[in-house]
Amino acid sequence: MSNLIPHGIQVHLVGQGCEDLASALGLVNSPLESADCALFIVSAKDGIVRADSDTWLIARELYIPSIVVITDLTADNETDFEDMTAIAGRILDPVVTPYLVLHQDDATPIALIDLISQQILDYSNGELTLRDSDIEHQEVIAEFREEYAEALAAAGEDAFENALLYPALPWIKGSRLGLAEITLYLNRVPLAR
Questions:
Q1: DSSP letter (8 states) at residue 47
Q2: Which of 90, 93, 135, 147 is the one with CA 20 to 30 A from 82?
Q3: pTM of the entire structure?
Q4: Which domain range does residue 151 map to?
Protein backbone atom coordinates (compact mmCIF):
# COMPACT_ATOMS: atom_id res chain seq x y z
CA MET A 1 0.00 0.00 0.00
CA SER A 2 2.91 2.36 0.66
CA ASN A 3 3.54 2.89 -3.05
CA LEU A 4 0.08 4.46 -3.30
CA ILE A 5 0.94 7.20 -0.79
CA PRO A 6 2.60 10.34 -2.18
CA HIS A 7 6.37 10.19 -1.79
CA GLY A 8 7.58 12.53 0.89
CA ILE A 9 4.24 13.08 2.61
CA GLN A 10 4.60 13.74 6.31
CA VAL A 11 1.68 12.37 8.35
CA HIS A 12 1.10 12.73 12.08
CA LEU A 13 -0.98 9.92 13.57
CA VAL A 14 -2.76 10.38 16.90
CA GLY A 15 -4.73 7.90 18.98
CA GLN A 16 -5.03 4.28 19.93
CA GLY A 17 -3.82 2.03 17.12
CA CYS A 18 -1.82 4.68 15.28
CA GLU A 19 1.14 2.30 14.92
CA ASP A 20 -1.09 -0.28 13.18
CA LEU A 21 -2.49 2.30 10.77
CA ALA A 22 0.95 3.76 10.04
CA SER A 23 2.19 0.25 9.24
CA ALA A 24 -0.83 -0.54 7.03
CA LEU A 25 -0.25 2.68 5.06
CA GLY A 26 3.54 2.34 4.96
CA LEU A 27 4.05 5.61 6.82
CA VAL A 28 6.35 6.84 9.55
CA ASN A 29 4.68 8.96 12.23
CA SER A 30 5.95 12.53 11.81
CA PRO A 31 5.85 15.36 14.35
CA LEU A 32 2.66 17.40 14.11
CA GLU A 33 4.49 20.67 13.43
CA SER A 34 6.10 19.28 10.25
CA ALA A 35 3.11 17.20 9.08
CA ASP A 36 1.31 17.66 5.77
CA CYS A 37 -1.73 15.83 7.19
CA ALA A 38 -2.94 14.45 10.53
CA LEU A 39 -4.85 11.23 11.09
CA PHE A 40 -6.84 11.15 14.31
CA ILE A 41 -7.66 7.55 15.20
CA VAL A 42 -10.87 7.39 17.23
CA SER A 43 -12.06 4.16 18.80
CA ALA A 44 -15.79 3.45 18.60
CA LYS A 45 -15.27 1.40 21.76
CA ASP A 46 -13.13 3.79 23.84
CA GLY A 47 -13.97 7.23 22.44
CA ILE A 48 -11.68 10.27 22.31
CA VAL A 49 -9.18 11.04 25.05
CA ARG A 50 -8.47 14.60 26.18
CA ALA A 51 -4.87 14.59 24.90
CA ASP A 52 -6.10 13.75 21.39
CA SER A 53 -8.67 16.56 21.42
CA ASP A 54 -5.91 18.94 22.58
CA THR A 55 -3.76 17.81 19.64
CA TRP A 56 -6.76 18.41 17.36
CA LEU A 57 -6.83 22.05 18.49
CA ILE A 58 -3.14 22.45 17.68
CA ALA A 59 -3.70 20.95 14.21
CA ARG A 60 -6.51 23.49 13.66
CA GLU A 61 -4.21 26.37 14.67
CA LEU A 62 -1.59 25.09 12.19
CA TYR A 63 -4.18 24.53 9.42
CA ILE A 64 -3.11 20.93 8.90
CA PRO A 65 -5.56 18.89 6.79
CA SER A 66 -6.99 16.25 9.12
CA ILE A 67 -8.89 12.99 8.82
CA VAL A 68 -10.84 11.34 11.62
CA VAL A 69 -10.36 7.57 11.34
CA ILE A 70 -12.99 5.56 13.23
CA THR A 71 -11.77 2.15 14.44
CA ASP A 72 -13.06 -0.71 16.60
CA LEU A 73 -16.15 -1.13 14.45
CA THR A 74 -17.28 -4.59 15.46
CA ALA A 75 -20.61 -6.39 15.51
CA ASP A 76 -20.59 -6.58 19.31
CA ASN A 77 -19.80 -2.89 19.85
CA GLU A 78 -22.76 -0.72 20.84
CA THR A 79 -21.33 2.37 19.12
CA ASP A 80 -21.31 2.20 15.32
CA PHE A 81 -19.67 4.42 12.69
CA GLU A 82 -22.53 6.92 12.49
CA ASP A 83 -22.71 7.25 16.29
CA MET A 84 -18.96 7.80 16.58
CA THR A 85 -18.85 10.38 13.81
CA ALA A 86 -21.55 12.34 15.64
CA ILE A 87 -19.53 12.14 18.87
CA ALA A 88 -16.33 13.19 17.06
CA GLY A 89 -18.22 16.07 15.49
CA ARG A 90 -19.20 17.34 18.92
CA ILE A 91 -15.84 16.84 20.65
CA LEU A 92 -13.53 17.91 17.80
CA ASP A 93 -15.22 19.83 14.98
CA PRO A 94 -18.08 18.93 12.67
CA VAL A 95 -17.00 16.12 10.36
CA VAL A 96 -18.34 14.90 7.02
CA THR A 97 -18.89 11.30 6.05
CA PRO A 98 -18.12 10.63 2.38
CA TYR A 99 -18.93 6.93 2.93
CA LEU A 100 -21.41 4.99 5.03
CA VAL A 101 -20.68 1.56 6.47
CA LEU A 102 -22.74 -1.42 5.32
CA HIS A 103 -23.12 -4.50 7.53
CA GLN A 104 -23.93 -8.14 6.97
CA ASP A 105 -26.81 -9.78 8.84
CA ASP A 106 -24.78 -10.35 12.03
CA ALA A 107 -23.92 -6.59 12.13
CA THR A 108 -20.31 -7.11 11.01
CA PRO A 109 -19.13 -4.16 8.86
CA ILE A 110 -18.22 -5.51 5.41
CA ALA A 111 -18.56 -2.68 2.89
CA LEU A 112 -18.83 1.04 2.30
CA ILE A 113 -21.15 2.99 0.08
CA ASP A 114 -19.72 6.08 -1.59
CA LEU A 115 -22.20 8.93 -1.12
CA ILE A 116 -21.18 10.64 -4.36
CA SER A 117 -20.91 7.73 -6.83
CA GLN A 118 -23.31 5.50 -4.86
CA GLN A 119 -20.98 2.57 -5.58
CA ILE A 120 -20.48 -0.15 -3.00
CA LEU A 121 -16.90 -0.76 -1.95
CA ASP A 122 -17.07 -4.36 -0.77
CA TYR A 123 -14.34 -5.61 1.62
CA SER A 124 -16.10 -8.84 2.64
CA ASN A 125 -13.32 -11.05 1.23
CA GLY A 126 -10.42 -8.88 2.49
CA GLU A 127 -9.91 -7.20 -0.89
CA LEU A 128 -11.65 -4.16 -2.33
CA THR A 129 -14.34 -5.01 -4.89
CA LEU A 130 -16.47 -2.30 -6.50
CA ARG A 131 -20.07 -2.84 -7.51
CA ASP A 132 -23.15 -0.78 -8.25
CA SER A 133 -25.59 -0.19 -5.42
CA ASP A 134 -29.19 -1.35 -5.48
CA ILE A 135 -32.10 1.09 -5.58
CA GLU A 136 -32.80 0.18 -1.93
CA HIS A 137 -29.31 1.36 -0.96
CA GLN A 138 -29.78 4.58 -2.90
CA GLU A 139 -33.07 5.28 -1.12
CA VAL A 140 -31.53 4.66 2.31
CA ILE A 141 -28.56 6.96 1.68
CA ALA A 142 -30.48 9.76 -0.09
CA GLU A 143 -30.65 12.03 2.97
CA PHE A 144 -26.99 11.40 3.92
CA ARG A 145 -25.96 12.03 0.31
CA GLU A 146 -27.81 15.35 0.20
CA GLU A 147 -26.33 16.41 3.54
CA TYR A 148 -22.81 15.55 2.36
CA ALA A 149 -23.26 17.39 -0.95
CA GLU A 150 -24.49 20.48 0.91
CA ALA A 151 -21.48 20.38 3.25
CA LEU A 152 -19.10 20.14 0.29
CA ALA A 153 -20.82 23.01 -1.53
CA ALA A 154 -20.78 25.22 1.56
CA ALA A 155 -17.14 24.51 2.41
CA GLY A 156 -15.72 24.96 -1.08
CA GLU A 157 -13.84 22.79 -3.54
CA ASP A 158 -10.49 22.67 -1.71
CA ALA A 159 -11.84 22.74 1.85
CA PHE A 160 -10.15 19.49 2.91
CA GLU A 161 -6.81 20.55 1.44
CA ASN A 162 -7.12 23.90 3.23
CA ALA A 163 -7.91 22.22 6.58
CA LEU A 164 -11.48 23.52 6.66
CA LEU A 165 -13.39 20.25 6.13
CA TYR A 166 -12.72 17.06 8.07
CA PRO A 167 -13.73 13.68 6.66
CA ALA A 168 -14.52 10.82 9.01
CA LEU A 169 -13.53 7.48 7.53
CA PRO A 170 -13.84 3.97 8.95
CA TRP A 171 -10.91 1.57 9.21
CA ILE A 172 -10.96 -2.11 10.10
CA LYS A 173 -7.50 -3.61 10.29
CA GLY A 174 -8.45 -7.23 9.56
CA SER A 175 -10.51 -6.65 6.43
CA ARG A 176 -8.63 -3.47 5.37
CA LEU A 177 -12.03 -1.74 5.08
CA GLY A 178 -11.38 1.97 4.65
CA LEU A 179 -7.67 1.78 3.87
CA ALA A 180 -8.07 2.65 0.18
CA GLU A 181 -10.36 5.56 1.08
CA ILE A 182 -7.84 6.96 3.59
CA THR A 183 -5.20 6.67 0.86
CA LEU A 184 -7.38 8.63 -1.56
CA TYR A 185 -7.54 11.53 0.90
CA LEU A 186 -3.80 11.37 1.61
CA ASN A 187 -3.21 11.71 -2.12
CA ARG A 188 -5.13 15.00 -2.07
CA VAL A 189 -2.88 16.59 0.56
CA PRO A 190 -0.65 19.40 -0.72
CA LEU A 191 3.04 18.82 0.03
CA ALA A 192 4.01 22.47 0.29
CA ARG A 193 4.62 22.59 4.05
A1: B
A2: 135
A3: 0.93
A4: 2-186
